[in-house]
User: Fold these one by one.
Assistant:
Number 1:
Amino acid sequence: MAERAGVGDGIADRPADRPAVIEARGISMGFGSRVLFRDVNFDVGRGEVFVILGGSGCGKSTLLKLMIGLYQPTAGRVTILGGDLSRADGEARRNLLRQLGVMWQSGALFGSMTLLENVMLPLEAHTDLPRDAREDVARVKLGLVGLGDAAGRLPAEISGGMAKRAGIARAMALDPPILFLDEPSAGLDPVTSAGLDELIKDLARDLGTTFVVVTHELQSILAIGDRCIMLDKEAQGMIAEGDPRHLRDEPPNDTVRRFFRRETR
Ligand SMILES: Nc1ncnc2c1ncn2[C@@H]1O[C@H](COP(=O)(O)OP(=O)(O)OP(=O)(O)O)[C@@H](O)[C@H]1O
C-alpha cells in the first residue's frame, strides 16, 4: 500500500469564507476490475481555483468527468451546487448542467464555424435569446478572453493558445458559476501557457467564477492553484491536499516530493 500520509479529509482546509459549491464524499471509481481511486473526499469552495493533479493515468480526467455527471462513481457521491448529477434527470439535470462550463483539452471548437459562431452555440441550444442578443453575448465573452478582434476567424486560422481562450469563452457563454478545464496548458509553449494562467486568475478574481482545473504542469499549478488535491495511481487514491506552494515546500510524503521535484528540473 503506497503512502497516504499527510492526507486529511480534504474538507477541513477550505477557507470558511468560501462556501462549498462541490462536495465529494467517499467517492471510488474504476473501470471493470481496475480500481482507479478509493474513498476520495474534498470540497471546492466558491471562487476557488481548485487543481486536480497527479501523474499520467491516475484518474484526473475521470474524476473531472465524475464531477460533471458523465460517469457515475462506483461508491460515494458528488454534489454540485447542492444537486447530484449522477441521480438527477430531466429538467433537474438540465438545470444543473447549465451551471457548468467545460473546456476539453483540445478546445473542441467546430472547424467550419467562426469563433463567434462557436461561442454562440450554447446560447442557441440553451436560451431563447434572439440572434442579435446571442451575438452580443458571444462578443462580450470573446472580449473577456482577449479575442475581441478575432471573432470572425476560423479555428484553423488561430494559434493553440487562442483556441484554448476561445474554448474558455464558449464554456463561459451561459455565465456558469463553475468552469472545468481539462489540461488547459497541454500543447502550449511556456509563454502562452503563462498567459492562459493569468486569464484564469483574472476571471476567478473579477467574475468570482469557480475553476476546477486538471493539470500536471507544475508552473500552472503553482501559478493558478488556490488549493489542490493530488491523486496517485499506486495509492489508488488521494495522497495530498492543500495549497500547492505549501505542498511543494513541505511535501507530506515522498510521492508528492518527487512530483514537485521531477517537474521543476
Ligand atoms: N471509459 C474508460 N474505460 C476504460 N478505461 C478508462 C476509461 N477512461 C479512462 N480509462 C483508463 O483509466 C485510467 C485513468 O484515465 P484518466 O484519463 O482519468 O487519467 P489521467 O490522470 O487524466 O491521465 P493523463 O494525465 O495521462 O491524461 C487510464 O488508464 C485510462 O486508460
Number 2:
Amino acid sequence: MTAATAARSSAEPPPPPPSLEVSGLAYAYPDGHQALYGVDLTVERGERVALLGPNGAGKTTLVLHLNGILEPGAGSVAIAGLPVAKRHLAEIRRRVGIVFQDPDDQLFMPTVREDVAFGPAAAGIRGPELAARVGAALDQVGMAEYADRPPHHLSFGQRRRVAVATVLVMEPEILVLDEPSSNLDPASRRELADLLLSLDITVLMVTHDLPYALELCPRAVVLSEGVIAADGPTPELLSDGELMAAHRLELPFGFDPRSVSPRRTAP
Ligand SMILES: Nc1ncnc2c1ncn2[C@@H]1O[C@H](COP(=O)(O)OP(=O)(O)OP(=O)(O)O)[C@@H](O)[C@H]1O
C-alpha cells in the first residue's frame, strides 16, 4: 500500500454496522417449549432477505425478538449496532418497523393521516415536521389521496399499504414484513412488490409465498425446528428439491424457480 492509499483509506468512514445481527439466539416459551436453538443471522444494510420455513419453525418467535417483544433466553440481537435491550427499547422500536400480517392490528385511529402520525407524534414530533413526515410516508406507499379516509373504509390491500406507511414514517433501519402478500389479489400483490422494490431500505420478509420471495429477495434463509437450515441465494435454495422437501417448502404446481430472477428495482 502506498502512503497515499493508506492516507485515503484511513480517512474513509468505517462501513455501517449490519442492519440486523442475531447471534446464538435461543428461546423457550414460559411453558418450556423450546422455539429457537442458537440462531445466527446477519443482514447487511440494503439487503432484502426472505425468512422461509414450515409452520412452527420459529419465524414469528425470531421476529418478536427483533424489537424486544420477547427477551432472549441466550444470545443477542443488535439493530444497526444497537443491542436490543430494555434500556434501548424506544430507539429499537423506531429502528425496526414490523408490518404485521393483519393491517387491522396496526390501524386504529379515525383517519389514515392520524394512524400514520401516531408513531412520530408519540415520539414528540409536532407541527410542520410531523405533517411533512406523514405526507412523505403516504406518498411512498401511494396513499396520499386517502389521508382523510377512515382506514376501515379502505380495501384490504390499501390498508396493508397504510400499515407499511405507519412504519416507514418512523424512518426505520429495517422493514420486517409478516406474510406481506397474504389476502392480496394479483394486482395488489404486484403493486405491493413494486412499492417494496422502490424503497431504499433493508427488508426481512417472512413468507410462505415462495414466488414472491424469489421475486423480491435475492437472499433467503430457511428456519426449521428453531435452527437455520439454509442461507443463500433464493433461486439456488428454491431449486434444491431435497432441501425444499426436508423443510416442507413447496412451490406452486409447475412453477420453475429458474424461470424467474429476483428483481432489483421497481419498473
Ligand atoms: N406462546 C407460546 N407458548 C408456547 N409455545 C409457543 C408459543 N408461541 C409459539 N409457540 C411454539 O413455538 C414454535 C415456533 O412457533 P412460531 O409461531 O415462531 O412459528 P412460525 O415459524 O412463525 O410458524 P407459522 O409459519 O405457522 O407462523 C411452535 O412449535 C409453536 O407451537
